[in-house]
Amino acid sequence: MKKKVLLKDVAEYVGVSTALVSYVLNNKEKQARVGDEIAKKIRKAAADLNYQPNLIAKSLQSGKTNTIGLIVADISNPFFSSIARIIEDEAMRQGYVVIFGSSDENPERSMRLIDVFNNRGVDAFIIAPSENAERQIRSLQKQQVPVVLIDRYFKNIRSDYVIINNHDSAYNAVEHLIRNGCRRIAMMAYETHLEHMQQRIGGYRQALKDNGIEFRENWLPRVSYKDVAHQVEDYIKALTRPRLKVDGFFFATNTLAVESLKPLTRMGIRIPEDLAIVSFDESDAFDLFYPPVTYVSQSLDAIGKGAVDLALARILDKKKKPEQLVIASKLVIRESSIRKRSK
Predict the structure, then answer these.
(1) Which of 83, 127, 140, 165 is the most exposed place for a label (fewest CB within 10 A)?
(2) How much is the pLDDT for 61?
(3) Are 103 and 156 in contact (CB under 8 A)?
(4) What's the CA gap between 103 and 221, in Å, rounded?
(5) What share of residues in the chain are helix, strand, coil (percent, to 5)?
(6) What angle do CA 310, 312, 318 make, to 5 degrees?
(7) Is the dihedral of CA 166, 170, 171, 172 positive or negative?
(8) Measured between alpha carbons, how far is 54 from 46 in angstroms, rounded to an integer?
(9) 277 pLDDT exceeds 90?
(10) What is the set of domains in the chain, with CATH numbers?
């Protein structure tokens, strides 16, 4: 077995002290007033000898592991997988590694992931919290573990978070349907008290009210996270049989949109001639349906990079005032929402 290269081996190779090598390889050569030429020789020697730092010893010395724990609702969802990749790339650019986990909207699973990541000594958490996870976030804050919330937040907890303006985004989507001739507009949402979903529902209801359209509770089906496919199909049938009761549909997530498009397509309902639709968030699965689907686009780059910046800022200063970033969204208008009928 090949012997592990140590700091002293690099020092002997160059002919300098171990302390000098340590300063350079920890990017502190300016503090030790090491010349540029000798710093280059030390780095080249470390590369030639294939020196690998002892990360455990380094973390014990610095009190940091340079890792971030990321917990999302479902890593298989394109929205969360895309954000996860952005967070991973941005964290790596700033010298951090990200470890991932999916809560599956289950607070018990979320708690287990937090425990595992905590035991591995992550320096910070970035979390898309599940419902009833308030105690978990408070516990992390009590331990002074940096935590940043993304996509969702809790009104009763002062925390760093990155979200979009869900109310206004939903409002604009529904008003777009109204401008295109829809007067009987349904919305499908998840059955949850999470703030982001409540704000999307609020935007939907406000758009109806501002345009003189009566809100109907039975046109706002709420689906359980645990049984999405079956419940979606049941609700679609209720709104389309024996006749189509609505002329516009706003879906609170891309998953709900995709699961609804399946039965709508099978039933032969024409989009947008019979039913105009808008979805919150894009999905690659939209490419399997015709026509192209109008959707609310969130700036995933801004959300991911903003979350990393807030996490690193919290690592540096655990007592600073919590920051909230609200990212703008835009409505990407495609054929699914453009109806030819007049009001």
Answers:
(1) 165
(2) 53
(3) no
(4) 24
(5) 45, 15, 35
(6) 85
(7) positive
(8) 13
(9) yes
(10) 7-53 (1.10.260.40), 64-163+300-327 (3.40.50.2300), 166-298+331-337 (3.40.50.2300)
